[in-house]
Amino acid sequence: MAQFAESSSCRRKNILNYFDEQTVEHCNHCDNCAYESAKATAHSAEDGLFLIQVLGSLRAKCTEDQLFKLIMDTHTESLPNALQIHPLRGKGKSKALNVWEATLSMLKKQDYVDTYKGDLRVTHMGMQWKASLERAASVTVSTKPKTAAHAEEELRLRNALKEWRVNRAKAESVPAYIIFNDATLEELVTKKPYTLVTLNEITGFGELKVERYGKEILRIIRETGKDRILEQARLDLIKIRSSKNAGDSFYLFKRGHKPEEIAEKTGFALNTIYRHLEGFVFDGELDPHDILRDERIREINKVLDQYGLDLLSSIKERLPEEVDYREIGIVRANWIKKHWEDLETERILSSG
């Protein structure tokens, strides 16, 4: 059974040969044949990325059958309303259904997509593959070539950092290179540190400079690269969601245990338990209302809508004192989910 399951050749052929019915023909219908067909008929990178983008943009659960009906615009009257009105409806009509079926089979075989209770979802590996393709600019997902978009973002960031450096140097009555030199400037532009910890890894930034200038520099980087910051936050949540410990916390929570009880049972800190739950809020398997009061969610969302993915400490400063970081994290995970879905939809629509 293990050999049969792990084989990459035609399933039907293996079964017939096992019962001494020798055949050299492939059935062209099983998952392995579909995978081989996908390699021959589907433009794997472009088509695979498209399916992952579609699945990532959905706010409703979706089976294989529903996915194909959505992108092919066939029998859509049987789809849930959220899928019927989806902006990507019919965007796959230019290719045959068997191409999409083969492409999905290939994605599943490579563990980029799996099913959970019958519904499709993109795995952590799938998200990483998608990100690597986009970084390599193998597929265009925006109105401009990705290299041009990156160059434009880097130019904005470089100019913003130069302007800040000049103003800061004047305020401190020192030469601009004392704040940071041009080599450090270029490293900030290319690496775009996301946190104070990663800023500390930039050449020329020790603890003193991070403490003195860190928050201002990160604010500039965030303001000039909001999409990238959103993507990094999304990948962080996917990584959390995919860990076994997070799965254990989710299981206990769904069985009625409070986060404090889960922390006591598992031995993890309460902050860690909330981080685990953030991953499942982002994944859509938990709703913030399962954890927090409506009023608390509204007041945190109000600040997030105004200031976006600022440092958590900055978000906290703008909220009542009784709001803690754990609550902000839960609401923030859902905020990231919604804004990422909107961004993905915009990207796919703009790509034609």
Strand order of the largest sheet: 1-2
- How many structural domains are formed by the residues? 3
Annotated CATH topology of the largest domain: Arc Repressor Mutant, subunit A
Mean pLDDT: 81
Distance between the termini: 45 Å
Give the tally of β-strands.
Answer: 2
Q: What does the radius of gyration come to?
A: 24 Å
Q: What characterizes the major β-sheet?
A: 2 strands, antiparallel
CATH class group of the largest domain: Mainly Alpha
Which stretches are low in confidence, meaning pLDDT under 50 for 5 or more residues running?
A: 38-43, 136-146
Which oligomeric form is depicted?
Answer: single chain
Brief sketch in words of this structure:
The protein is mainly alpha-helical. The protein has helices at 2-6, 11-18, 31-41, 44-57, 64-72, 81-84, 97-109, 124-135, 146-172, 176-179, 182-191, 196-199, 207-224, 226-241, 244-254, 259-266, 270-282, 294-307, 312-317, 325-350; strands at residues 113-116, 119-122. The protein has a two-stranded antiparallel ribbon.
